[in-house]
Design a protein that fits this description.
It is built from 2 helices and 7 strands; from the N terminus they run αβββββββα. It is of the alpha+beta class and 115 residues long.
Length: 115
C-alpha cells in the first residue's frame, strides 16, 4: 500500500475508535435517600471511584439549592433539612471531564421515610 492509503485507513480507524474510548469512561452517579440525607456516589464505568468533583443540588423546578464537592471516597452527603426537597431533587456531578446526574423524586423520599 502506498502512504496516502495507509494514512486514510489510519484516520478512519481513529474516527471509529474515538467514540468507543470516550464511552469507556462514563461517569455513573447514584443517589440514595433516607429521612436525614441524600447520599451521592460517583464512579466511572470502569469501577474507579471519582475522587474529585463538584456536586450541584437543584429542585424539581431546576433552581440551584446548594453545592458541595465529592469526598475522596467518591461520595457526598446532603442533609435533607438543608434543602427544599418537596418537588424532588436533581443531583448533578461534574468531575471536570465527565458529568452525569441522578433524580430523586418526592416519592423516593416519602417511600424511604416511611410516609
Amino acid at each position: 500500500m502506498d502512504r496516502p492509503v495507509i494514512r486514510a485507513l489510519s484516520t478512519a480507524a481513529l474516527l471509529v475508535a474515538a467514540p468507543i474510548g470516550a464511552a469507556a469512561h462514563q461517569l455513573v452517579v447514584f443517589a440514595s435517600v433516607d429521612c436525614e440525607a441524600v447520599t451521592v456516589e460517583a464512579k466511572f464505568s470502569s469501577g474507579r471511584i471519582a475522587q474529585k468533583g463538584d456536586v450541584r443540588v437543584l429542585d424539581g423546578e431546576n433552581t440551584l439549592l446548594t453545592e458541595t464537592t465529592l469526598e475522596t471516597n467518591g461520595t457526598a452527603t446532603i442533609p435533607l433539612a438543608s434543602v427544599d426537597h418537596s418537588t424532588g431533587l436533581l443531583i448533578e456531578v461534574d468531575t471536570g471531564g465527565h458529568d452525569n446526574y441522578w433524580i430523586v423524586t418526592p416519592e423516593d423520599i416519602a417511600r424511604n421515610c416511611g410516609s
